[in-house]
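Q: What residues go here?
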């Protein structure tokens, strides 16, 4: 971050601070501030946010070298907020500085062909994320930077967890910015009004029957008392923000960016939706919050989500969320510096929000078993947008539905097999932009003595270390993986195991000319498999990939397609899961 009005580096955030001369009753809702920012090939109105007291902040950056200038305005007009101006000069980073922190390359966007991700300067970005939904809370304490040792235990900090995951190749973490009604307040974790309206559907805090505490040193995200009758001390007033909570989150987002990590920020979880819509000025209230979060974090290197829509029960319909989200975009525009909009959905952003929506990065999410990887194929065929599996099987997951025998000991080989099914099955089904991992104990940030799995223990599970091998598999031919098209039906058989499972299935993706074919066989898939749809007489060089250690085996002997166009594939080394690449000679 920089507050300088002199010389800065590109993609470095500047906080322009203003002091209002007017006393607003509710500054968050009663006033709007902005700057009109001009620079090389850039002219945008950038909105700011109330930051407590009489302070307002507009966060800007330069996305190109050169001279930049700005002029402020406000509604209503205020002498301290309107009519201010300034300028700065932006310079490029050196090659060494770019290598030290890839976020200096700019915002994450779609690759040229719309299938993958890249930094603003065109450098490829293969997303490998972890699920830290509770990061804004006290459960991820931010320590002095010098203490980041990567040591795992009760004393671990956000710094340590970042060090562990960076060493394993992760470059993204997912978080939910606000859990407004969650607190270990002695009331049940799941609360409904007499008419069935959901007040909260929170995770249960281990050792209690109440909700998880999600405060940080700044307090909770919104102010109390709230507007929900009978629950004024549970559900806050969503029209009164607590800036101190978000200042704490600011420091964590800054730290992640400084470490080269890209936060995927979801602004609110869906269980707040029914009371928000029923007892507040909907869609205005939610649209205001969407814009607030874009203003607060749109000049960080992030991915932003207007709603964590991981489940369609206990909330309002997805189309009802579309209304305030679209209102915010129509009124204020999409994030000014190119931040992609996405969401953790159920089952997919395409199903939930439709085609031609505000979604820039498609996701499938909170649907676990391998039959659901198909949603990525559906999105691939529907729109040319990058896609990932954002919430697949969680390592150590003990809350599975059918069939119940799927529960396996955490960090066992079966547990890792399930994770790898999600990694490679999702990628070859169309999730070419990357993958977000999750683990029991981490996704809900368990730190209580009664927790089934402490989060610092889960960080040591081997499945997390194996996530990095997906990139090794995908990029064996550089960026050619972005040319792949899902075509699982080319490999036969491909579905010998049950749908609600992670074993027995096979996957395939190929370039349009079928000169490069990538396959993945889950554990227990048939040892004999064939590939159809290839040209008789073509010859391929096969090469197996071990997803346990990320090693490519030496190429085998060339194989030729017989006259019937059905190619018998070489048997994989054993009955475990394996990747396979076929290169046409």
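A:
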């Amino acid at each position: 971050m920089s507050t300088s009005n002199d010389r800065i580096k590109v993609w470095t955030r500047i906080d322009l601070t203003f002091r209002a001369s007017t006393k607003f009753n509710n500054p968050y809702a009663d006033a709007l501030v902005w700057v009109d920012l001009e620079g090389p090939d850039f002219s945008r109105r950038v909105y700011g946010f109330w930051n407590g007291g009489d302070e307002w902040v507009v966060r800007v950056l330069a996305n190109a070298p050169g001279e930049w200038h700005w002029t402020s305005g406000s509604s209503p007009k205020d002498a301290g907020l309107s009519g201010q101006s300034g300028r700065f000069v932006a310079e490029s980073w050196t090659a060494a500085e770019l290598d030290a922190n890839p976020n200096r390359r700019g915002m994450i966007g779609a690759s040229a062909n719309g299938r993958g991700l890249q930094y603003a300067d065109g450098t490829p970005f293969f997303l490998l994320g972890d699920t830290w939904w509770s990061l804004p809370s006290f459960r991820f304490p931010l320590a002095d930077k010098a203490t980041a040792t990567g040591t795992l235990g009760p004393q671990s900090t956000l710094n340590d967890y970042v060090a562990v995951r960076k060493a394993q190749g992760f470059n993204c973490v997912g978080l939910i910015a606000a859990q407004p009604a969650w607190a270990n307040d002695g009331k049940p974790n799941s609360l409904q009004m007499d008419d069935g309206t959901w007040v909260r559907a929170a995770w249960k805090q281990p050792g209690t029957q109440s909700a998880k505490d999600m405060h940080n040193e700044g307090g909770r995200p919104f102010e109390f008392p709230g507007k929900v009758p009978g629950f004024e001390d549970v559900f806050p007033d969503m029209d009164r923000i607590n800036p101190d909570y978000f200042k704490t989150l600011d420091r964590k987002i800054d730290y992640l960016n400084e470490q080269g990590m890209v936060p995927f920020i979801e602004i609110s979880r869906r269980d707040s939706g029914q009371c928000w819509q029923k007892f507040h000025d909907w869609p205005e209230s939610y649209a205001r919050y969407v814009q607030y979060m874009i203003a607060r974090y749109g000049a960080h290197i992030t991915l932003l989500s207007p709603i964590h829509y991981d489940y369609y029960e206990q909330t309002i319909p997805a189309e009802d969320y579309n209304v305030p989200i679209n209102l915010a975009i129509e009124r204020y525009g999409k994030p000014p510096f190119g931040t992609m909009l996405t969401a953790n959905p159920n089952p997919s952003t395409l199903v939930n929000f439709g085609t031609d929506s505000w979604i820039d990065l498609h996701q499938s999410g909170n649907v676990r078993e391998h039959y659901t990887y198909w949603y990525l194929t559906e999105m691939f065929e529907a729109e040319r947008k990058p896609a990932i599996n954002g919430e697949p099987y969680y390592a150590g997951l003990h809350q599975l539905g059918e069939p119940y025998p799927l529960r396996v000991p955490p960090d066992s080989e079966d547990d890792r097999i399930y994770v790898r099914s999600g990694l490679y099955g999702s990628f070859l089904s169309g999730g070419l932009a990357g993958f977000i991992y999750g683990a029991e104990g981490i996704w809900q940030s368990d730190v209580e003595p009664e927790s089934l799995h402490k989060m610092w223990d889960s960080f040591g599970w081997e499945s997390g270390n194996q996530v990095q091998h997906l990139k090794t598999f995908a990029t064996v031919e550089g960026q050619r993986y972005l040319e792949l098209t899902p075509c699982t039906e080319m490999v036969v058989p491909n579905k010998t195991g049950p749908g609600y499972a992670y074993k027995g299935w096979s996957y395939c993706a190929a370039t349009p000319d079928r000169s490069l074919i990538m396959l993945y066989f889950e554990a227990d898939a048939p040892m004999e498999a064939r590939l159809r749809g290839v040209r008789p007489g073509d010859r391929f060089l096969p090469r197996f990939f071990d997803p346990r250690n990320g090693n490519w085996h030496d190429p085998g002997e060339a194989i030729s397609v017989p006259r019937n166009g059905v190619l018998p594939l070489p048997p994989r080394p054993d009955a475990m899961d394996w990747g396979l690449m076929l290169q046409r000679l």
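A: Context that may help when evaluating the design: The chain has three domains: 7-92, 111-475, 483-584. DSSP finds 13 helices and 31 strands in the chain.
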